[in-house]
Amino acid sequence: MISQTLPEHIAIIMDGNGRWAKERGLKRTAGHEQGAKVVRDITEHCAKIGIDYLTLYAFSTENWNRPKLEVEFLMKLLERYLQNEKEIYLKNNIRFKAIGDLSKFSLSLQKIINEVQTQTTACTAMTQILALNYGSRDEITRAVNKVIATNKQITQENIEANLDTAGIPDVDLLIRTSGEVRISNFLLWQSAYAEMFFTNTYWPEFHPNELDDIISDFGKRQRRFGGV
Ligand code: IPE
Ligand code: IPE
Ligand code: MG
Predict the structure, then answer these.
(1) Is 213 a catalytic residue?
(2) Nearest ligand, CA of residue 78?
(3) Long-range contacts of residues 105-109, Cβ cutoff 8 Å, at least 24 apart
(4) Which of 21, 151, 176, 200 could form a disulfide with 31 if both were Cys (CB 3.0 to 4.6 A apart)?
């Protein structure tokens, strides 16, 4: 169904796990569990249809404000997910990369993140980027400090070269699930000219077919980048 104008970089704010679970009389954590399965489906689908970069917002710098038990569950889920996913990345030739301030995570989580990044560096079908303890304001602030530390001028190019996403093209298509219509501190710099798409579907129910529909809608949009 998709022929041309495929977005090179899709970014998704995966939202609605908690509400999906609550509406089914389940604990919020059941929503996260189901959400992790959808991460795999959507990632494999994107690699299959020829998307080059898929960035998924998995844990924000503000998500530490959640109840301790939920944060702990998310950390364990992430570790387990990466552990299991190694094979899947390699099987699908997917490179894994993390963005965000990883130094706040436990050493065991940092270790598995680094391991999977290293083991998949040579994979070429697609890059899946997980935003972990990620916040755009934090990322931009860290980038500016890195520029200052090297005594370079503060220019757009120098800031960009020091973002966690250095070398990755800007976001073409930004999707948020769950009906919320906000950015929540995600890829502010990189989404300057992204096409936005908001769906009411909760993340645990998001399906590759819906993604295909969104991508075909993207193909019909006229991007002007300030021109005419
Ligand atoms: C998104 O779902 C997952 C994370 C932010 C980790 P939520 O947990 O925010 O689900 P809702 O928004 O409360 O339904
Ligand atoms: C954004 O979702 C963060 C992630 C999806 C990881 P939130 O559920 O944390 O965002 P808000 O609080 O509704 O803005
Ligand atoms: Mg939410």
Answers:
(1) no
(2) 1
(3) 105/75, 105/132, 105/133, 106/75, 108/79, 109/75, 109/78, 109/79
(4) 21
CA of 127 to the centre of ligand 2 (A): 23
List the helix and strand counts (H, then E) for the chain. Answer: 7, 6
User: pTM score, two decimals?
Assistant: 0.97
Q: What is the pLDDT of residues 21-39, one digit of tens each?
A: 999 999 999 999 999 999 9
Is residue 129 exposed (0-12), middle (13-18) or buried (19+ Cβ within 10 Å)? Answer: buried
Residue of 63, 138, 170, 212 marked active site: 63
Rama region for 167: left / alpha / beta (φ>0; ψ in -120 to 50; rest): left
User: Is 209 part of the annotated catalytic residue set?
Assistant: no
Give yes or no for residue 178 CB within 6 A of ligand 1: yes
Domains present along the chain, CATH in parentheses: 9-135+170-220 (3.40.1180.10)
Is the Cα torsion angle 19, 25, 26, 27 positive or negative in sign?
positive
Residues whose CB is under 5 A from ligand 3 (ion)? 15
First-residue to last-residue Cα distance in the chain: 29
Mean pLDDT score across all residues of the chain:
97
